Amino acid sequence: QELIVSQVGTDPDFTNNGAITIPATARLQVLGGTLREPSWGVDGTGDIHVEDGTFDIGAAASSAVTWTLLNAELKGAGSVTNTGTVSLQGGALVSLPMTNEGTIEATAGTNTFAAPLTAPSSGRIDTRADATLVLDAPLTNQGQLAIRDASTVSCAKPLTNQGTIELIPEIGSRGTPLLSVTTGGLANEAG
After folding, report:
1. Which residues are within 8 A (CB) of 36 and not within 5 positions of it... i.e. 6 or more apart?
2. Cβ distance 99 to 81 under 8 Å?
3. From CA 71, how far away is CA 169, in angstroms rounded?
4. What span, in angstroms and rounded, lies between the C-alpha atoms of 165 and 38?
5. Number of other CB atoms surrounding residue 133 within 10 Å
């Protein structure tokens, strides 16, 4: 099952004021434009795939879905508590506060968090291949931050770590994993 919202034209915009249930085997796909979710009526454990578009959340949301942001933005006046998976690919931007109790994966391109990110002990942030994860807002990590292969995590704001940071070179890798904290410093505290 798949619901596709495909938008073209000048600043296309779709607003959902009702409920959307995404079962485990289903997918909501947003292609282009903006999908607005002012009161967060999304439920389920399926997939939300946003490609070359924007998903705008207007209220606090708790989500067990699998997000894929491909050259897309997750933004809004709300915040997200992720208990599923967020996959950032090809220039994704997250510009709303997020608490990650699930998994965040950066798998390709330069992907950016422009709002505070908190990862409690159940949270995992994982970068792979040649991905770059740019943190332009504070990160508080109590879970696991795994930087693999030739990937980079670049922090332009304070990084407070009370969990685990792993730099994991892969066999046959084209480079070395890198953690770069350019502003605000790294506080590596006992967790």
Report:
1. 13, 14, 15, 16, 56, 58
2. yes
3. 26
4. 35
5. 26
- What pTM value is reported for the model? 0.92
Residue 79 CB partners (closer than 8 Å, separation 6+): 57, 60, 61, 96, 97, 98, 99
The per-residue pLDDT for range 38-81, each reduced to its tens digit, is 999 899 999 999 999 999 999 999 999 999 999 999 999 999 99
pLDDT tens-digit profile of 128-169? 877 899 999 999 999 999 998 889 999 989 999 999 999 988
